[in-house]
Specification:
It is a single chain. The chain is an all-alpha fold. It contains 15 helices and four strands. Strands 1-2 form a two-stranded antiparallel ribbon. Helix 3 runs antiparallel to helix 7. The chain is globular, with a radius of gyration of 24 Å. It binds heme C (HEC) (2 copies). The site of one heme C (HEC) has 25 residues, from helix 4 and helix 5. It holds the Pfam family CCP_MauG. It is found in: Cell envelope. Keywords: Heme, Iron, Metal-binding, Oxidoreductase, Peroxidase. It comes from Vibrio agarivorans.
Length: about 375
């Protein structure tokens, strides 16, 4: 008798659990798969096969719709996805990160802030070939921090995968901030301004919260609404005919094999100088890329595929910052990564396409500046 009851009880619990799981699954499926048939918003005209049809439809109302609704209408088979707005940001925490980012007192000589090399007024990077920090000149061109949170790998050689790990680089590097978390913690904990900001954000001042405030701030730095993203959302006239030809060439020539994802790069690590060493690899600089971290012979000249978001605004180019013009960078890529001498018209079209990858300055910066 006792046993029978136990069996019935177990079977009932099992049925309810399976039922609930199925209900949840169906709900998630329905939520995540809105179909285009539910709406009369036009399909984005951005597939390679459509690109030659440059006379196609006029602007669509999609652009005025909320970002999170628009995202559902982007064709997932296109290997470049729009930059999405950030969600669930702890604003008070991000604001502490903004202060810390701009604060030269975090460095050993109290003169170098993160912003010294990552200009928040312009492009999130700097205009000189290689960065200058506390103890002189570094080895590499500074990377933009705009959209960095979308990069699967970080640094020119892709040696770390998270913004938290990345932070250890600049803080300790003698040619960057030459500092330590103990010193930074001591300084922040004794500052009246930071004590107030941390209290407002309901946070204790610890090394962990200092780091996570910096990361929270970095997570807000998306550059939305690049013309190419509007085009992906279905606004045909957001980019010129030349840029559309460039987008087509970017795919047909093979750039897309490496530069893809929301950041049009930032995910893979590849040899710089696949086809010969013309102004690439060892002829370009003594920088051995990933080899410097791993010491594996096969890692010589391996670099992260650069993100091409806002690339028109982040000259000079490549890890050594030795290439001034975007057109030259495109030519070098054609030769070294694809073994092709791209003709002038193709280079120009690709350049027009790359220009459409520049988005708006992160809006939170202006908000913080005006508060
Ligand atoms: C002295 C100049 C300098 C300072 C100061 C500096 N950086 Fe950088 N930053 C660089 C350079 C150069 C690189 C690329 C280095 C490399 O790839 O080896 C870089 C790379 C990065 C990246 C990686 C971006 C990507 O797409 O991979 C992030 C994120 C970043 N820095 C954030 C910060 C933060 C946060 C601070 C302050 C705590 C800071 N930086 C201070 C010069 C600097
Ligand atoms: C085999 C992979 C691969 C292919 C194909 C490729 N790239 Fe790259 N690209 C890279 C790597 C790796 C880097 C970073 C090089 C470095 O470390 O300096 C890069 C960097 C760039 C940069 C410099 C970005 C910056 O901020 O300095 C541009 C511009 C660029 N690529 C455009 C293109 C174009 C246009 C094509 C097609 C003609 C193309 N790439 C094809 C791997 C590739």
């Amino acid at each position: 008798m006792q046993n029978n009851r136990l069996v019935i009880c177990c079977v009932t619990i099992l049925c309810v659990t399976v039922g609930l799981l199925m209900f949840d699954g169906v709900k998630a499926y329905l939520n995540e798969s809105p179909t285009l048939a539910d709406t009369n918003i036009p399909l984005p005209g951005s597939k390679a096969s459509d690109v030659s049809d440059t006379t196609a439809s006029n602007s669509s109302p999609v652009v005025d719709t909320a970002q999170h609704i628009r995202r559902a209408y982007v064709d997932p088979s296109i290997p470049i996805q729009p930059i999405l707005p950030i969600e669930n940001i702890d604003r008070a925490k991000a604001k502490i990160g903004w202060r810390l980012f701009k604060d030269p007192n975090l460095s050993s000589n109290k003169q170098v802030s993160c912003e010294s090399c990552h200009n928040l007024q312009t492009n999130g990077a700097e205009q000189i070939p290689v960065s200058v920090g506390v103890n002189g000149v570094g080895l590499r061109n500074s990377l933009t921090i705009f959209n960095a949170m979308n990069n699967y790998r970080l640094f020119w050689d892709g040696r770390v995968n998270t913004l938290e790990e990345q932070l250890e680089g600049p803080i300790h590097n003698p040619v960057e901030m030459d500092s330590s978390w103990e010193d930074i913690h001591q300084y922040v904990a004794s500052s009246k301004l930071y004590r107030q900001l941390f209290a407002e954000a309901n946070l204790d001042i610890t090394v962990h919260t200092i780091k996570s405030a910096l990361v929270e701030f970095e997570n807000t730095l998306t550059t939305l609404d690049a013309p190419f993203d509007l085009y992906l959302y279905g606004q045909e006239d957001a980019i010129s005919d030349s840029a559309k030809r460039g987008w087509f060439a970017f795919q047909s020539e093979g750039c897309i094999a490496c530069h893809q994802g929301p950041n049009v790069g930032g995910g893979l690590v590849m040899r710089f100088g696949y086809f010969g060493q013309d102004k690439t690899g060892s002829e370009r600089s003594s920088d051995l890329g990933r080899f410097a971290t791993t010491s594996k012979p096969e890692d010589r000249h391996l670099f992260r595929v650069a993100s091409l978001r806002n690339v028109a605004d982040t000259a000079p180019y490549f890890h050594d910052g030795q290439t001034q013009h975007l057109s030259e960078a495109i030519r070098i890529m054609g030769k070294s990564q694809l073994g092709k001498d791209l003709d002038d018209k193709t280079v120009d079209d690709i350049q027009q396409f790359l220009i459409t990858l520049s988005g708006k300055r992160p809006s939170i910066l202006e908000e913080f500046e005006n508060e």
